[in-house]
Amino acid sequence: MTTPHINAPAGAFAETVLLPGDPARARYIATHLLEDAQQVTDVRNMLGFTGTWRGQRVSVMGTGMGIPSCSIYATELVREYGVRRLVRVGTCGTSAADVALGDIVVALGASTDSRVNRQRFGGHDLAALASFALVRAMADAAMQAGSALRIGNVFSTDMFYHPDPALFDLLDRHGVLGVEMEAAGLYGVAAELGAEAVAVLTVSDQIRNKQAMSPAQRETGLEAMLRIVLDAVTT
Questions:
Q1: Cβ(94)–Cβ(204) under 8 Å?
Q2: Facing residues of 48 across strands?
Q3: Residues involved in catalysis
Q4: How far apart are CA 202 and CA 106, in angstroms?
Q5: Around Cβ 129, how many Cβ atoms within 10 Å?
Q6: What is the rounded distance in angstroms from the CA atom of residue 125 to the CA atom of residue 96?
Q7: Are 65 and 156 in contact (CB under 8 A)?
Q8: What are phi and psi of 129, to 5 degrees?
Q9: Across the chain, where does the E strand assignment appear?
Protein backbone atom coordinates (compact mmCIF):
# COMPACT_ATOMS: atom_id res chain seq x y z
CA MET A 1 0.00 0.00 0.00
CA THR A 2 1.27 3.45 -0.91
CA THR A 3 -0.26 6.89 -1.48
CA PRO A 4 1.05 9.86 -3.47
CA HIS A 5 2.77 11.13 -0.31
CA ILE A 6 3.39 8.07 1.91
CA ASN A 7 5.27 4.93 0.86
CA ALA A 8 4.69 2.84 3.99
CA PRO A 9 3.32 -0.70 3.70
CA ALA A 10 -0.08 -1.64 5.08
CA GLY A 11 -0.10 -1.83 8.87
CA ALA A 12 3.02 0.30 9.20
CA PHE A 13 1.31 2.99 11.31
CA ALA A 14 -0.14 2.64 14.79
CA GLU A 15 -3.69 3.80 15.43
CA THR A 16 -2.22 6.91 17.13
CA VAL A 17 0.13 9.17 15.19
CA LEU A 18 1.94 12.21 16.58
CA LEU A 19 2.25 14.95 13.96
CA PRO A 20 5.05 17.50 14.33
CA GLY A 21 5.46 19.87 11.42
CA ASP A 22 9.19 19.31 11.06
CA PRO A 23 10.26 15.86 9.82
CA ALA A 24 13.55 16.29 11.70
CA ARG A 25 11.50 16.61 14.87
CA ALA A 26 9.67 13.41 13.95
CA ARG A 27 13.05 11.69 13.78
CA TYR A 28 14.05 13.22 17.14
CA ILE A 29 10.88 11.94 18.80
CA ALA A 30 11.38 8.47 17.31
CA THR A 31 15.04 8.17 18.30
CA HIS A 32 14.96 9.89 21.71
CA LEU A 33 11.56 8.92 23.10
CA LEU A 34 10.19 5.83 21.37
CA GLU A 35 11.62 2.33 21.74
CA ASP A 36 12.45 0.11 18.76
CA ALA A 37 11.43 2.85 16.33
CA GLN A 38 11.63 2.01 12.63
CA GLN A 39 11.34 4.45 9.74
CA VAL A 40 8.28 3.58 7.64
CA THR A 41 8.04 6.38 5.06
CA ASP A 42 10.30 8.99 3.45
CA VAL A 43 8.49 10.44 0.41
CA ARG A 44 9.73 14.02 -0.16
CA ASN A 45 11.82 13.50 2.96
CA MET A 46 8.65 13.76 5.08
CA LEU A 47 9.74 11.12 7.54
CA GLY A 48 7.50 8.78 9.50
CA PHE A 49 8.36 6.25 12.20
CA THR A 50 6.65 3.62 14.33
CA GLY A 51 7.88 2.42 17.73
CA THR A 52 6.57 1.91 21.24
CA TRP A 53 6.07 3.97 24.39
CA ARG A 54 5.70 2.00 27.63
CA GLY A 55 5.05 -1.09 25.53
CA GLN A 56 2.31 0.40 23.36
CA ARG A 57 2.64 1.06 19.66
CA VAL A 58 2.83 4.73 18.59
CA SER A 59 3.78 6.41 15.30
CA VAL A 60 5.15 9.87 14.53
CA MET A 61 5.27 11.65 11.19
CA GLY A 62 6.11 15.12 9.92
CA THR A 63 3.39 17.14 8.17
CA GLY A 64 5.17 20.23 6.88
CA MET A 65 3.90 23.74 7.56
CA GLY A 66 0.35 25.02 7.11
CA ILE A 67 -3.13 23.59 6.76
CA PRO A 68 -2.80 22.30 3.16
CA SER A 69 0.30 20.20 3.90
CA CYS A 70 -0.99 18.91 7.23
CA SER A 71 -4.35 18.02 5.68
CA ILE A 72 -2.73 15.88 2.97
CA TYR A 73 -0.93 13.66 5.47
CA ALA A 74 -3.82 13.51 7.93
CA THR A 75 -6.23 12.48 5.17
CA GLU A 76 -3.99 9.74 3.79
CA LEU A 77 -3.16 8.39 7.24
CA VAL A 78 -6.83 8.02 8.14
CA ARG A 79 -8.21 6.90 4.78
CA GLU A 80 -5.46 4.57 3.67
CA TYR A 81 -3.71 3.44 6.87
CA GLY A 82 -6.58 3.22 9.37
CA VAL A 83 -5.17 5.80 11.79
CA ARG A 84 -7.77 6.75 14.41
CA ARG A 85 -6.05 9.41 16.54
CA LEU A 86 -4.09 12.40 15.17
CA VAL A 87 -2.10 14.45 17.68
CA ARG A 88 -0.45 17.62 16.44
CA VAL A 89 2.62 18.36 18.59
CA GLY A 90 4.56 21.57 18.12
CA THR A 91 4.92 25.19 19.09
CA CYS A 92 2.79 28.30 18.88
CA GLY A 93 3.08 32.01 19.41
CA THR A 94 0.86 34.07 21.67
CA SER A 95 -0.25 37.68 21.97
CA ALA A 96 -2.10 37.12 25.26
CA ALA A 97 -0.56 38.89 28.24
CA ASP A 98 -1.39 36.03 30.64
CA VAL A 99 0.18 33.28 28.51
CA ALA A 100 3.90 32.79 29.13
CA LEU A 101 6.76 31.28 27.21
CA GLY A 102 6.91 27.56 27.95
CA ASP A 103 3.20 27.23 28.74
CA ILE A 104 1.53 24.15 27.25
CA VAL A 105 -1.64 24.91 25.29
CA VAL A 106 -4.20 22.26 24.37
CA ALA A 107 -6.37 23.53 21.52
CA LEU A 108 -9.96 22.75 22.49
CA GLY A 109 -11.03 24.65 19.39
CA ALA A 110 -9.27 26.30 16.47
CA SER A 111 -10.47 29.49 14.81
CA THR A 112 -8.92 30.36 11.47
CA ASP A 113 -8.53 32.80 8.58
CA SER A 114 -8.38 29.84 6.18
CA ARG A 115 -11.40 28.94 4.00
CA VAL A 116 -10.58 25.24 4.01
CA ASN A 117 -13.28 24.18 6.45
CA ARG A 118 -15.92 26.27 4.70
CA GLN A 119 -15.09 24.42 1.49
CA ARG A 120 -15.29 21.14 3.42
CA PHE A 121 -18.59 22.10 5.10
CA GLY A 122 -20.67 23.34 2.17
CA GLY A 123 -19.80 27.03 2.59
CA HIS A 124 -20.85 27.11 6.24
CA ASP A 125 -18.71 27.71 9.36
CA LEU A 126 -17.53 24.44 10.89
CA ALA A 127 -16.80 24.49 14.63
CA ALA A 128 -13.28 23.04 14.49
CA LEU A 129 -13.09 21.13 17.77
CA ALA A 130 -10.67 18.69 19.34
CA SER A 131 -11.70 15.26 20.54
CA PHE A 132 -12.93 15.68 24.11
CA ALA A 133 -11.57 12.25 25.01
CA LEU A 134 -8.08 13.28 23.89
CA VAL A 135 -8.32 16.67 25.64
CA ARG A 136 -9.34 14.95 28.86
CA ALA A 137 -6.52 12.42 28.49
CA MET A 138 -4.01 15.28 28.09
CA ALA A 139 -5.36 17.01 31.18
CA ASP A 140 -5.18 13.81 33.23
CA ALA A 141 -1.61 13.06 32.09
CA ALA A 142 -0.50 16.61 32.85
CA MET A 143 -2.00 16.40 36.34
CA GLN A 144 -0.14 13.14 36.96
CA ALA A 145 3.08 14.81 35.81
CA GLY A 146 2.48 17.89 37.96
CA SER A 147 2.34 20.15 34.91
CA ALA A 148 -0.17 22.90 34.18
CA LEU A 149 -2.07 23.15 30.90
CA ARG A 150 -3.88 26.01 29.22
CA ILE A 151 -6.97 24.65 27.46
CA GLY A 152 -8.92 26.82 25.04
CA ASN A 153 -9.07 28.38 21.61
CA VAL A 154 -6.16 28.85 19.21
CA PHE A 155 -6.00 30.67 15.87
CA SER A 156 -4.75 28.78 12.80
CA THR A 157 -3.49 31.28 10.25
CA ASP A 158 -2.47 30.83 6.65
CA MET A 159 0.06 33.67 6.99
CA PHE A 160 3.16 33.33 9.16
CA TYR A 161 4.01 37.00 8.53
CA HIS A 162 0.57 38.51 9.01
CA PRO A 163 0.13 41.99 7.48
CA ASP A 164 -2.48 43.25 9.98
CA PRO A 165 -1.18 43.89 13.52
CA ALA A 166 -4.75 44.64 14.65
CA LEU A 167 -5.41 40.90 14.38
CA PHE A 168 -3.71 40.34 17.72
CA ASP A 169 -5.98 42.84 19.50
CA LEU A 170 -8.94 40.92 18.07
CA LEU A 171 -7.54 37.59 19.26
CA ASP A 172 -6.87 38.93 22.74
CA ARG A 173 -10.42 40.33 23.06
CA HIS A 174 -11.76 36.87 22.30
CA GLY A 175 -9.49 34.98 24.68
CA VAL A 176 -7.44 33.17 22.04
CA LEU A 177 -4.46 31.50 23.70
CA GLY A 178 -2.10 30.86 20.79
CA VAL A 179 -1.41 31.36 17.10
CA GLU A 180 -0.28 28.49 14.87
CA MET A 181 -0.85 27.16 11.35
CA GLU A 182 -2.39 23.67 11.32
CA ALA A 183 -4.96 22.80 14.01
CA ALA A 184 -8.14 24.06 12.32
CA GLY A 185 -7.40 22.06 9.18
CA LEU A 186 -6.49 18.96 11.15
CA TYR A 187 -9.72 19.16 13.13
CA GLY A 188 -11.71 19.53 9.90
CA VAL A 189 -10.13 16.41 8.41
CA ALA A 190 -10.82 14.45 11.59
CA ALA A 191 -14.45 15.58 11.71
CA GLU A 192 -15.08 14.63 8.08
CA LEU A 193 -13.35 11.25 8.27
CA GLY A 194 -14.56 10.17 11.71
CA ALA A 195 -11.18 10.28 13.45
CA GLU A 196 -10.08 11.96 16.68
CA ALA A 197 -7.65 14.89 16.76
CA VAL A 198 -6.04 17.28 19.22
CA ALA A 199 -3.25 19.84 19.04
CA VAL A 200 -0.85 20.21 21.97
CA LEU A 201 1.52 23.16 21.71
CA THR A 202 4.38 24.70 23.66
CA VAL A 203 4.36 28.50 23.62
CA SER A 204 7.67 29.49 22.03
CA ASP A 205 7.11 33.15 21.09
CA GLN A 206 5.46 36.19 22.68
CA ILE A 207 4.36 38.15 19.63
CA ARG A 208 3.85 41.56 21.21
CA ASN A 209 7.15 41.94 23.04
CA LYS A 210 9.11 39.76 20.59
CA GLN A 211 10.36 37.41 23.30
CA ALA A 212 11.24 33.91 22.14
CA MET A 213 12.54 30.70 23.62
CA SER A 214 16.10 29.77 22.71
CA PRO A 215 16.64 26.59 20.64
CA ALA A 216 17.73 24.78 23.81
CA GLN A 217 14.66 25.97 25.70
CA ARG A 218 12.43 24.83 22.82
CA GLU A 219 13.87 21.31 22.92
CA THR A 220 13.52 21.08 26.71
CA GLY A 221 9.97 22.41 26.64
CA LEU A 222 8.94 20.20 23.76
CA GLU A 223 10.33 17.06 25.38
CA ALA A 224 8.40 17.73 28.59
CA MET A 225 5.24 18.28 26.57
CA LEU A 226 5.85 15.18 24.45
CA ARG A 227 6.17 12.94 27.51
CA ILE A 228 2.75 14.18 28.68
CA VAL A 229 1.29 13.51 25.23
CA LEU A 230 2.77 10.02 25.00
CA ASP A 231 1.53 9.12 28.46
CA ALA A 232 -1.94 10.43 27.53
CA VAL A 233 -2.30 8.43 24.32
CA THR A 234 -1.00 5.15 25.78
CA THR A 235 -2.83 5.07 29.13
A1: no
A2: 41, 61
A3: 205
A4: 9
A5: 17
A6: 25
A7: no
A8: -120, 145
A9: 16-19, 35-41, 48-53, 56-61, 85-94, 104-112, 150-156, 178-180, 196-206, 211-212
Contacts of residue 53, Cβ cutoff 8 Å, sequence gap at least 6: 33, 34, 35, 230, 231, 234
What is this structure's pTM?
Answer: 0.97
Distance CA 74, CA 15 (A): 12
Amino acid at 200: V
pLDDT digits 0-9 by tens, 192-226: 999 999 999 999 999 999 999 998 888 888 999 99
pLDDT one-digit tens code per residue, 116-133? 999 999 999 999 999 999
Q: How far apart are CA 183 and CA 161, in angstroms?
A: 18
Contact between residue 109 and residue 127 where contact means Cβ atoms under 8 Å apart: yes
Helix, strand, or coil here: 203?
Answer: strand
Query: CA–CA separation, 9 vs 29, rounded Å?
Result: 21
SS3 state at 129: strand
3-state secondary structure 43-99: HHHCCEEEEEECCEEEEEECCCCCHHHHHHHHHHHHHHHCCCEEEEEEEEEECCCCC
